[in-house]
């Protein structure tokens, strides 16, 4: 039932070039984008649809990384110009547009048939936080909204177990982003939400953690409200709280940490050194929680120590926290980046830095100046 935004399996080599034209509309509507493609060799593919992948485990397999594999695969070796990732993305979207338009029409007809006596306004959009990964950390309200939705747009970090809770008549559309590939731009996500809400659908935007903590939920809410669409936010347990609780780390603790600060490892425009806040964040009496910080941790750690945070400050990096795939590396701040690289932690990984890390029942098992990699049972 879940959606795939991926290129279908190809049994012949090909190259794809594309351009995009826009038809006039009230604004840059997602459904007014008409990709024009020139496919220079024959494609033999199964039918693709926005609603074909049964579980997000298939999505993870594709994300790790089908596109990279396809671009390097020998099946493309006979082509003079293999498709780049943007061409593949646009090709995927072109394949999906007919079924997305059809779903829009079905929803419009449903609204009209159910409300002939009384005209109803546009549908609602719910921004729903699904927590750090464990489905049992969902709120009761989030579960109710998920099970009553017509359409759900979900991110990469939403777990398979959460997707299994979706109602039988709902449709799932994957709009996830990861380093190197965005299945949808943020502007396209805005337009999808708007288009389906205007058709009268109850639209749920599923996000990992909390939708308003480094989830761009505020941008989506602002855009939709400016278009007259009602937006309701269902908070989720943010990764900082959920993962810290899983490890027995109090984010604040009397006499140890009197505040907690959430940081993002990515600047607005990307780059490797967005950490201009390090000078103010180097407070030994505070806890730092870094989201999306794997690539920038070496720079952050160096800056924090330069501005006075002790080198032996306890720290932990947690990959896929609260899930069966959880892995943890405990280390002192000066060693953490090296140990993450040694143990090959991958995204999503949350980093917690501060004296409170040593309060975890797992910390005493770590000898000084060493690290320990722990995997969930």
TrEMBL record:
Which protein family is it in?
Belongs to the precorrin methyltransferase family.
Q: Pinpoint the Tetrapyrrole methylase domain residues.
A: 125-337
Provide the GO biological process annotations. methylation; siroheme biosynthetic process
Q: Does the keyword Methyltransferase apply?
A: yes
Q: Which organism is it from?
A: Abeliophyllum distichum
Enumerate the UniProt keywords alphabetically: Methyltransferase, Porphyrin biosynthesis, S-adenosyl-L-methionine, Transferase
Full protein name: uroporphyrinogen-III C-methyltransferase
| EC number, UniProt record | 2.1.1.107
Molecular-function GO terms, alphabetical: uroporphyrin-III C-methyltransferase activity
């Amino acid at each position: 039932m879940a959606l795939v935004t991926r290129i279908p399996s190809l049994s012949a080599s090909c190259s794809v070039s594309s351009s995009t034209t826009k038809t006039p509309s009230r604004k840059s509507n997602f459904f007014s984008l008409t990709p024009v493609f020139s496919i220079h060799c024959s494609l033999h593919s199964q039918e693709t649809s926005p609603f074909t992948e049964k579980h997000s485990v298939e999505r993870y397999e594709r994300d790790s990384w089908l596109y990279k594999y396809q671009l390097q695969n020998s099946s493309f070796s006979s082509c003079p110009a293999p498709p780049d990732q943007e061409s593949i993305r646009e090709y995927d979207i072109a394949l999906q547009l007919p079924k997305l338009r059809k779903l829009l029409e079905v929803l419009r007809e449903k609204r009209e048939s159910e409300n002939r006596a009384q005209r109803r306004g546009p549908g609602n959009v719910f921004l729903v936080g699904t927590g750090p990964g464990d489905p049992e950390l969902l709120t009761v309200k989030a579960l109710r909204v998920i099970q009553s939705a017509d359409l759900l747009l979900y991110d990469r970090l939403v777990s398979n177990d959460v997707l299994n809770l979706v109602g039988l008549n709902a449709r799932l559309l994957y709009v996830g982003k990861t380093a190197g590939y965005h299945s949808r731009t943020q502007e396209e996500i805005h337009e999808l939400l708007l288009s389906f809400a205007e058709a009268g659908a109850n639209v749920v935007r599923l996000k990992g953690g909390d939708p308003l903590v480094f989830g761009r939920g505020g941008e989506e809410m602002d855009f939709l409200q400016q278009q007259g669409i009602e937006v309701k936010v269902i908070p989720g347990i943010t990764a900082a709280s959920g993962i810290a609780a899983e490890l027995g780390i109090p984010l604040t603790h009397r006499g140890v940490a009197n505040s907690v600060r959430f940081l993002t490892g990515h600047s607005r425009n990307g780059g490797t050194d967005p950490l201009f806040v390090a000078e103010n964040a180097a407070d030994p009496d505070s806890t730092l929680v870094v989201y999306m910080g794997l690539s920038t941790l070496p720079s952050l750690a160096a800056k924090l120590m330069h501005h006075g945070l002790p080198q032996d400050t306890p720290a932990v990096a947690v990959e896929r926290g609260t899930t069966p795939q959880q892995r943890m590396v405990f280390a002192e701040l000066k060693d953490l980046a090296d140990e993450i690289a040694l143990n090959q932690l991958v995204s999503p990984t949350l980093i917690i830095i501060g004296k409170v890390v040593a309060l975890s029942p797992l910390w005493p098992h770590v000898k000084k100046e060493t690290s320990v990699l722990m995997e969930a049972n």
